C-alpha cells in the first residue's frame, strides 16, 4: 500500500476517520445476501479474505483522494457509489480470479517461438488428441497385449525413434539434463569424464554441465581452451580412471573467430580405440536440415547416429516440438544398462508425456507432414505476406480502440525480428512483422502498460523498447488478436500518467 498516511497538511484527522468509517465492517458485509451466496459457492475463509482485500483497496483509494484532492471529493466518491453492490461485485471478481488456473493460458507476442518461460513448444493437434485419449481412458502403458504380462512403457516411442533416426535403441526420461545425468551415472559414476573446456555450458535456470556431472558422481576432466581443442587433447587426458568421453553441442551460444573443434566422428573413433563410450549431448532435437527453413545448420539426430555416437541425448520440447522429455538414442547394449539403473525409475516419464511424444514423432514420417502439423515448425516457416496481414489486422483493431487518444499514443506496423528461442540458434534472427504502440512524452508508460497487459486474463506478453510496446505477430495463435484487443481496452489511456 502506498504511504499516504504520513503527511496530511491541513486535512483534519477527524474528517479522514469519518470518511473511513463509512466503509462497512467485515462482519456486516458477511451478512449481505450476495456475500452469503458467494460463501455457498466458495468458502467462508476465502470470501472473508477477499472482503478484507477489497476494503483495503477502498481505503487506499479514499486516502489518495483526500491527500491529492480533498476530503469532500472522497465523500462524494463514496456517496455516488452503490456501495453494497460494488463491494459484492469486487469480491466476486477477486474470487473468480483466485479460482482461475494459476498455470494460465497466455498470449505470446514476443516473437520468441520456443519461449522457455511461456512453456516452450506448443503441441500439435495430433499430440494433444493422444494426450486427451490416454488421460481419459485406461491404456496399454506397461502391458504386453499378446502375453498379457507386464511390458515396457517405452516400446511405442522406442520403435518410432529408431525408425526416424536409425538408432539401435532408445529411452525417454523427463528432460535432457536427466538424460545426461543418467548416462553419466551409469557409465562414469566413480570415474573421469573428459570434456572440452569450451563445452561447459549453462543450460538455463543456472544449471550447468559441471553441476550435472557432479550430481552423477563423475569427475570432470577439462581439455583444450575455451576456443580451441584438438583430438590430441582428449587422447592425452585418457588414463585408467577414464570412463567416458563427453561432447556437448553448444546450441545456446557460439564462439566465433580463432576456433578449433573436434567432430563427433573423430571422438567416436577415439572412444572405440580406447573402448570408452562417447556421450553426445545434442541439446535441441532436430530431425531434418533446418537450412531449408532459412535457418543455419544444426546437426540432425540421424546424422549424429550415423557419425557413430554411442549415446545421443536431446530435448523433446525444443525444435522437435513435443512435450518436455529427455530423449536418449544409442547402442542397444548401452541403453539396456541405462534402463537397469535405479535412477531411471526416479526420472521416468508418465503416460501423458509418452502419448504427446508419440503423437509428435508420428508427424515426422515426412518433412511435409511435420511442417504442416507441428506448431514450432509452422511458426518458423510462416510466410512474410501472412505475417504482414496479421500485423495490419492487429494494428487496425488497436487503432479502433484508441481512436480518441491519438495525441497520447502512436500505433504503427514495422518490420521486426523473431527468434527461435529455447537455447537454439542464438545468432539467428528471423524477419517478421510487428505492431508498435508508442507513448511519446510519457516516460515509463510502456513499462506500466506492459504490466497491465500481463495482469489481464489471459495475460499478454510482448516486448518493450524505447518506451514502446512491440507485438511480434509470428507467435500469435488464432484468436490472439481479440485477446490483445481486450487487454488493450483496459489500459485506461485517458489516465496515461497513472497507467
UniProtKB/TrEMBL annotation:
GO molecular function: L-seryl-tRNA(Sec) selenium transferase activity
Reactions the enzyme catalyzes: L-seryl-tRNA(Sec) + selenophosphate + H(+) = L-selenocysteinyl-tRNA(Sec) + phosphate
Domain L-seryl-tRNA selenium transferase N-terminal, first and last residues per copy: 20-59
GO CC terms: cytoplasm
Keywords: Cytoplasm, Protein biosynthesis, Pyridoxal phosphate, Selenium, Transferase
EC number(s) given by UniProt: 2.9.1.1
Pathway: Aminoacyl-tRNA biosynthesis; selenocysteinyl-tRNA(Sec) biosynthesis; selenocysteinyl-tRNA(Sec) from L-seryl-tRNA(Sec) (bacterial route): step 1/1
Cofactors: pyridoxal 5'-phosphate
Superkingdom of the organism of origin: Bacteria
One of the Pfam families matching this protein, by short name: SelA
Keyword Protein biosynthesis: yes
GO biological process, one term: conversion of seryl-tRNAsec to selenocys-tRNAsec
Main location: cytoplasm
N6-(pyridoxal phosphate)lysine carried by residues: 318
Signal peptide: none
PANTHER family per UniProt: L-SERYL-TRNA(SEC) SELENIUM TRANSFERASE
Job of this protein: Converts seryl-tRNA(Sec) to selenocysteinyl-tRNA(Sec) required for selenoprotein biosynthesis.
NCBIfam families, alphabetized: selA
Protein name: L-seryl-tRNA(Sec) selenium transferase
Organism ancestry: Bacteria, Bacillati, Bacillota, Clostridia, Halanaerobiales
Gene of this entry: selA
Amino acid at each position: 500500500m502506498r504511504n499516504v498516511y504520513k503527511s496530511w497538511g491541513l486535512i483534519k484527522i477527524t474528517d479522514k476517520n469519518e470518511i473511513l468509517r463509512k466503509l462497512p465492517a467485515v462482519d456486516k458485509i458477511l451478512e449481505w445476501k450476495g456475500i452469503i451466496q458467494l460463501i455457498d459457492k466458495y468458502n467462508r475463509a476465502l470470501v472473508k479474505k477477499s472482503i478484507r482485500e477489497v476494503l483495503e483497496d477502498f481505503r487506499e483509494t479514499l486516502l489518495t483522494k483526500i491527500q491529492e484532492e480533498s476530503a469532500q471529493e472522497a465523500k462524494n466518491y463514496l456517496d455516488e457509489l452503490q456501495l453494497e453492490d460494488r463491494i459484492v461485485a469486487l469480491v466476486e471478481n477477486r474470487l473468480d480470479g483466485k479460482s482461475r488456473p494459476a498455470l494460465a493460458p497466455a498470449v505470446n507476442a514476443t516473437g520468441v517461438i520456443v519461449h522457455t518461460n511461456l512453456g516452450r513448444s506448443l503441441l500439435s493437434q495430433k499430440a494433444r488428441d493422444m494426450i486427451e485419449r490416454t488421460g481419459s481412458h485406461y491404456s496399454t502403458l506397461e502391458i504386453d497385449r499378446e502375453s498379457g504380462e507386464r511390458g515396457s512403457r517405452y516400446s511405442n516411442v522406442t520403435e518410432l525413434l529408431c525408425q526416424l533416426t536409425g538408432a539401435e535403441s532408445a529411452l525417454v526420461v523427463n528432460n535432457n539434463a536427466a538424460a545426461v545425468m543418467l548416462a553419466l551415472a551409469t557409465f562414469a559414476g566413480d570415474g573421469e569424464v573428459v570434456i572440452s573446456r569450451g563445452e561447459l555450458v549453462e543450460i538455463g535456470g543456472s544449471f550447468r554441465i559441471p553441476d550435472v556431472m557432479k550430481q552423477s558422481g563423475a569427475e570432470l576432466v577439462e581439455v583444450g581452451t575455451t576456443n580451441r581443442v584438438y583430438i590430441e587433447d582428449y587422447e592425452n587426458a585418457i588414463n585408467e580412471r577414464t570412463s567416458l568421453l563427453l561432447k556437448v553441442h553448444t546450441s545456446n551460444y557460439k564462439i566465433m573467430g580463432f576456433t578449433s573443434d573436434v567432430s563427433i566422428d573423430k571422438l567416436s573413433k577415439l572412444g572405440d580405440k580406447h573402448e570408452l563410450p562417447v556421450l553426445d549431448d545434442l541439446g535441441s532435437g532436430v530431425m531434418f536440415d533446418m537450412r531449408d527453413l532459412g535457418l543455419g545448420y544444426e546437426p540432425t539426430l540421424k546424422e549424429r547416429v550415423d557419425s557413430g555416437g554411442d549415446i545421443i541425448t536431446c530435448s523433446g520440447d525444443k525444435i522437435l516440438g513435443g512435450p518436455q522429455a529427455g530423449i536418449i538414442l544409442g547402442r542397444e547394449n548401452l541403453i539396456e544398462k541405462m534402463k537397469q539403473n535405479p535412477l531411471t525409475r526416479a526420472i521416468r516419464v508418465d503416460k501423458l508425456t509418452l502419448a504427446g511424444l508419440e503423437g509428435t514423432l508420428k508427424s515426422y514420417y515426412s518433412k511435409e507432414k511435420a511442417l504442416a502439423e507441428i506448431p514450432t515448425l509452422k511458426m518458423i516457416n510462416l510466410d512474410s505476406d501472412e505475417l504482414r496481414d496479421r500485423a495490419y489486422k492487429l494494428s487496425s483493431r488497436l487503432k479502433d480502440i484508441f481512436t480518441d487518444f491519438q495525441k497520447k499514443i502512436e500505433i504503427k506496423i514495422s518490420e521486426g525480428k523473431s527468434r527461435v528461442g529455447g537455447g537454439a540458434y542464438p545468432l539467428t534472427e528471423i524477419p517478421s512483422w510487428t505492431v508498435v504502440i508508442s507513448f511519446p512524452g510519457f516516460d515509463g508508460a510502456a513499462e506500466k502498460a506492459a504490466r497491465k497487459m500481463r495482469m489481464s486474463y489471459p495475460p499478454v506478453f510482448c516486448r518493450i523498447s524505447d518506451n514502446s510496446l512491440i507485438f511480434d505477430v509470428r507467435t500469435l495463435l488464432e484468436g490472439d488478436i481479440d485477446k490483445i484487443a481486450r487487454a488493450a481496452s483496459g489500459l485506461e489511456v485517458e489516465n496515461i500518467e497513472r497507467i
